[in-house]
Fold each of these.
Amino acid sequence: MYQDLNQKVAVVTGGSKGIGTAISRRFGEEGMKVVINYNSDEKGAQKVVDLIKKHGGDAIAIHADISTEEGVSHLLETAVSEFGRLDVWVNNAGMENKHETKKLTLKDWQRVIDVNLTGTFLGSQKALNHFLDEDKPGSIINISSVHEQIPWPTFAHYSASKGGVKLLTQTMASEYARHHIRVNNIGPGAIKTPINAEKFDDPKQLEETTNMIPMKEIGEPKDVAAAAAWLASNESKYVTGITLFVDGGMTLYPAFMDGKG
């Protein structure tokens, strides 16, 4: 637990399921007040709010399209009006879908870029300007992916979006470090989330995935949430511009394990 997080305020985009839910719950356990953003799953978001409140925290669920300026403005305004401040902004909302690059439509390309990359830019920019206007330090945490580093055939748009998030994060971190505004990435690997449930329920696909992970196991959303809590806290006050991979070693080129190659 990080005592300095108590009573601080966070916005978590895409907080109604998976990694976003785990981060929101962990922040609630830390005594933070959480604005939980959702796009379509209102029931899921409200369930997270109820869980946080049940354990003594405070939270509110807010619908917003984070790929629009209006959406991110609404989230910031809610944080300030409901809880009086903003300390941490987590750009977690994201999407993926599988297409061979030769068949990838502009519509599918644009929607993934809009949510994963433009949404991260808009949320980060809104948080940055708030921290600067208030002349206060702040933490921005972007949820990227191992695929900011590892190419992923049939997911060109997703990989491009996460590669963009990596350099966006590094650029913002460099630009605003003097203001003590920290900007960091978390790069999850294979995590047990609803989007992966069907794949990991298939023994063959599960084995194929675990064979790409040196630790030979699938991660949990709470593993990513633990990294987010650390990056939000003063324990990481001298850390900015990094990608913290939470991947069981997936980015370590596991094909070369045991001296192969």
Amino acid sequence: MWIGSALAGIGGQLTIVTVMLHVFELTASTFAVSMIAVAGLVPMVLAGLYGGMLADAFDRRRVALIAATIAFVATALLTGLTWTGAETIWWLYGLSMVIAAANSVGMATRTAIVPRLIPLNQLAAASALNGVAFGLTVMVGPAVAGVLVALTGFGWTYTIDVVLMLCMFLGLWTLPTLLPEGMIVRPGLASIVDGWRFLRRAGNIRAQYLLDIAAMTFGNPLALYPALGTVLLGGGAVTTGLLTASVAVGTFASSLFSGRIVQYRWHGVGIARAVQAYGATVALFGAILLIGVFLPPASEHSPAVPLIAVACVALALSGAADNISSIYRNTMMQAAVPDAMRGRLQGVFIIVVAGGPRLGALYAGTLATLTALWLPPLLGGMLVIGLAVTIARLTPRFRAYDALSPEA
């Protein structure tokens, strides 16, 4: 499952970056690029909630396979439309929504499966291993997407994703039947109410949700990358790929050298400090972009190479900080939540993890359109630091969370 998810993830990242570049080519609008993420928010929220209920009521292997099939068909349709020249911005929005919804169900289900495959004391190490896979996918996928789009166009890039997605089926197909343990609640209103009642009592889980929403809403400049490659930094699609991949370099490196990180038992403190560090690195990225305003104008064929290099370093540091937070958040979710409730809470968790960046895309795209490209990350990074400090101070139980005695 780990190998299949990693290979399919590379293809998924190819499509994410390619759709961004595709929309920007059709519209020349950063706001239109940010709306890709916003358009998928409502379907993703609904799918995450309902997918979590499905994962707590039925065989999780089957649920994950069905979700992967839907994402595969939507990506194949996007590929066919592109090759025939029939794609429009509305097709790109619509199919992105379907893919986001299917991936939301699949991610919630696959994450709920992990604690059934390994011992409790290996969960933090497994989260770090997933960080290696995620870092590799986001590091390779966007960089390759930028190069492929620049050299071959959009059709071939989507086609490669279709091929790589087949690996997901191989990974899931090898799993045994995985019915939820404990009392099974059928999907419906009662299941949602049951899950939210548990969440109301789970103060530690709520605190980590709030911290992640703050970080991703105000500290995610992803929607700015196409414009940065075209307007401020130069280099076009290649720069867009490099900026996106730099975050993954930090994720990959921090997971690869995570021995001491996974041994740290005070996960609440670890999350809060990692989010503060994330905010600081995003603010640094914004400051670097501000410097670029005072340099000679860059273009697609004359990029500001030194500035791009420094910006990539700042983004790599942000990826490392976010991954450390993710290791502790995932471990807390898997260790502190009962198995019969894990699918629904993972569904909410996926909504938080994926919904925050979509709100962040709206924040960054709108503010950049109204002001300047450097302002959203600079201001947002400082807001993340302030919110992380405030949330940590208001939740003493969260600060005292001990991985040796996990409590939601």
Amino acid sequence: MRLPPPRGPVTEELFARLAGPPGTALPEPPAGAASPLDDDDLQLALFACYELHYQGFDGVDDLWEWDPALLRHRAELERRFESALAEMVPRPLPVPPSHVRRALTALVAADDAAGGPSLSLFLQREAGPEVFREFVVHRSVYHLKEADPHTWGIPRLRGRAKAALVEIQADEYGGGRRERMHSELFRATMRAVGLDDSYGAYVPNVPGVTLAVSNVMSLFGLHRRLRGALLGHLAALEMTSSLPNRRYAAGLRRLGGDATAVRFYEEHVQADAVHEQIAASDLCGGFAAAHPELTGDVLYGAACALALERRWAGHVMAYWERGGTSLLGEPVAA
């Protein structure tokens, strides 16, 4: 992927520097007018900084990944992002390690009880092909590198928690078979609905609220101090996945999707029902038993995942209910 078009002074400065040789100083990023959670400029800059640790960008020197000036620049962006997260998401109180699963279940139940329009029901029953295609575009930012952010946690764990995370990630990567990797299954879904399945193709089209959903995973994954939050984030994803994916599959079949098109969603209905148990009990429970002082971090990571997902869903639904596009620029054509 190439660097996307900049969206403001932060990305204009950052991308101009990334196009040249490493070692040049970067000024402190200017403050944006919007909340960091909504700031397209900040979220795209942070996404680009993180992407240097994944696939990188064509035309950007790989030495930028660990450039001290860039890391200082990224640290300031992260500070603003973390501050906004802390303001939005009240930090749950720590619980005894034996109560972590119960506390995670309570967080998910409270999120369900919060109400609001159901995006998954809308896609199942009402969405037309253009809206479903938009949904796939938004999700492509993460699903084309599905599991990668959480894999950063493996070398930072030991014992029961490490074994549990490896078990989950092995399924995400298709048990070593490329065609069964979840990222590859999603590429098949993209092709089936007429989208470009190349990595990062639609990053220029998604708003900051979508990038924030991806960025929080990288934030938690790339910092050892946040490993508890990373595990809680993964647990929340697994515990809220099966039912929505069943609905997504039904909605895509209603629109004419074949077995190949819906396989990604149907795979998650089955796999995540199993992963939910492993993530809540063995992964988070095992980590809490080894690090009882970090149970609050686990619950905070789960709460952040739920809050950012709810925020993103509300954003796109507001556009879809008005008959507009939730993407930047022109609607994405098949």
Amino acid sequence: MFTSEKEIEVRYAETDQMGVVYHANYLVWMEIGRTTLIKDLGYEYAQLEREGYLAPVTELSVKYKAASTYGETVTVKTWVESHGKLRTVYGYEILHADGSIAATAVTEHVIVKKENFRPVSLRKIHPEWDAVYTKIQRGES
């Protein structure tokens, strides 16, 4: 299974009054992970947007396991959990430096035309990108 990794230094601004990372910041880290995965595969999400397409989140599930704190470095591991005709599901693990799990998550995305938000298949607009996602989805390689 192809997995992308991105290290992130936890910034003070990402923490709450309890000194731990505020839960919504994990969503930002997942976006960074997705962008890194796409780049590692040789593609660019920004190019997709320039072509008139978006990939909004249609579903999200996060399980918080252990707090992350200011000053530590976490690693966001990202992979394609599943990829079908219209939906792509990304999987994530956010790990502490010692390898313990801070959070796990999945996000589901559907590519839509920017002008009308009608779904469109990645296969139709980028067949080579679609083929890579199909090949690397979890359990397929």
